[in-house]
Amino acid sequence: MKRIVITISREYGSGGRLIAKQLSEKMGITFYDKQLIAEVAKKTGFSENFIRDTEHQRPTNSFLFDLYTTVVTPSVPDQVFIAQAKVIKQAAAKESCVIVGRCADYILRDEPNVLKVFVHAPLDQRIRRAREEYGAEEENLENYVIRQDKARAAYHNYFAAGRWGQSREYDLCVNSRIGIDAAVRVIQSAAQAIMGE
């Protein structure tokens, strides 16, 4: 089988992580999500909780701006991202895999064997999933879901050149309202097309 790397970016509550997990199982390839945090922790010496918290901070300016203006050393979030990018590139070079989030679509943008996917869903479905499946207990779930998306967009837009969630930045955009199983089939079909199967 030709090597394929599928990156899954997703709106909060769209079921993107679940889709990615089922896709990896169906295709028999490695699934990377929280394992990446553990690898970055080993490389940087930062704790996994610290890295997780860093990913959820809303950065200012842009990564490229910070690289040009930082004379001595990159900021801690930048250091974490640089280490994370190395881990993602190593995983993609080693084996076929599915990688969730963490700007993997941008980090691997020049690789020909990468399928960049964005998973989205109607807001009402995402609110329901946040409550019923994720156990979110915020008083105003709609605002909470929207804030999660803003944080993801800010993180992506800080480190990446493209805009998070805009269709032209991805090879495939899937609305998970078609169902998790159907979304998995659509993405697998696209992956097989890239592999020439």
Structural commentary:
It is built from nine helices and five strands. The longest helix is centred in the middle third of the chain and has 19 residues, at 76-94. By secondary structure, the chain is of the alpha/beta class. Strands 2-3-1-4-5 form a five-stranded parallel sheet, sandwiched between helices. The N and C termini lie close together (9 Å). Helix content is 54%, strand content 12%. It has a single domain (5-195), classed as P-loop containing nucleotide triphosphate hydrolases (Rossmann fold), CATH 3.40.50.300. Helix 1 (16-27) packs across helix 9 and helix 2 (34-44) packs across helix 5.
Number of domains: 1
The N- to C-terminal Cα distance equals 9 Å
- Strand content is 5-15%
Average the pLDDT over all residues and give the rounded result. 86
Gyration radius, rounded: 17 Å
Percent of residues in helices comes to 40-55%
Q: What would CATH call the class?
A: Alpha Beta
Strands, total number: 5
Order of helices and strands: EHEHHHHEHEHHEH
Ranges where pLDDT stays below 50 over 5 or more residues in a row are 63-71
CATH topology: Rossmann fold
Based on CA inertia axes, which overall geometry fits?
Answer: globular
InterPro entries: P-loop_NTPase
GO molecular function, one term: kinase activity
Keywords: Kinase, Transferase
Protein name: Cytidylate kinase-like family protein
